[in-house]
Write a structure and sequence with these properties.
single chain, alpha/beta, 8-stranded mixed β-sheet, two-stranded parallel sheet, 10 strands, 34% helix, globular, binds NADP nicotinamide-adenine-dinucleotide phosphate
Amino acid sequence: METIFLTGATGHVGFRVFILALQAEYSVRAAVRSLTKSEAILASQPIKALNPGPRLNFVEIPDLTAEGALDEVLEGVTFVVHVAAPITSTVGIGDDLEAHFIGPSVQGTLNLLRSASRHAGIRRVVITSSLAAIVDTTNIEEATRTVLNEHSRTFRIPRPPYSTSVQAYCAAKALALNAAKAWMKEQQPSFGVTHILPGDVYGPNELVTDPDDMLQMGTNRILLTPVVGGHHDPSASTTIHLDDVANAHIAALRPEMPTNRLYLLHSGGVSGKGRGLVRNCS
Ligand SMILES: NC(=O)c1ccc[n+]([C@@H]2O[C@H](COP(=O)([O-])OP(=O)(O)OC[C@H]3O[C@@H](n4cnc5c(N)ncnc54)[C@H](OP(=O)(O)O)[C@@H]3O)[C@@H](O)[C@H]2O)c1
């Protein structure tokens, strides 16, 4: 049985990827920052219903950027799916936006790639990037009029000090993508890397049990805040349903899916209606 090493399973996107991976009969080794977080996963309805038994186990990795932290835990793994990254939120970010966003995204990704290259059995690495990684976020007016295609990249990446968490997040995603591409070009490992670039992700967050958390964490708050009478600035991104994002991660593991590519995920064109248009780009 093939084993997936998964990061980010305690989050909105990663948990859905986690469920689909188990449904697809993979074994999953999920990295969590603290093992207490695995309790919420084990107590969740979808996991109870699946009852995966020994196909599911957790490893505690407090810091994905720590040198060598991932070397041993990748033993026996076939696929790495790297979803974890800090995203914007109304809570828990602090003042040092560079430390919060850039290191975990860029060094976390490079650390994982380096460790993966020490394991000959790893065939594919899937990384959750974002449309934010290829949009010129220094000029949103222009960006909203720009059609992105498979060759789009941004080289106007915001530099520190960052004035907002959105700015730091976008910079982190762009820098992580560029760093991973450069590393692959230089190192030429035996595995391929697939980058998944969703727009704003909406869909049920099955790990959130407190309604207040819905309004503070994750992208669902962009939808829900106006519903309860609050204000949220409009998002310049397109939208994509959570299930389509999770499916794309699992589809990317199939041998017939080309690697070393970017897959842009958005639903129904720039109006953001409908479900499931996936475009790939090299
Ligand atoms: N939501 C969207 O609209 C959207 C759009 C495009 C791309 N993405 C990408 O999708 C991925 C998941 O996002 P999400 O919406 O699921 O966010 P989320 O619900 O906040 O989940 C984030 C996950 O990453 C982990 N994480 C956060 N900071 C970390 C750090 N410094 N070190 C290690 N792990 C860390 C979290 O672990 P803890 O539980 O321990 O905090 C959690 O498992 C991210 O890479 C994000 O950039 C999301």
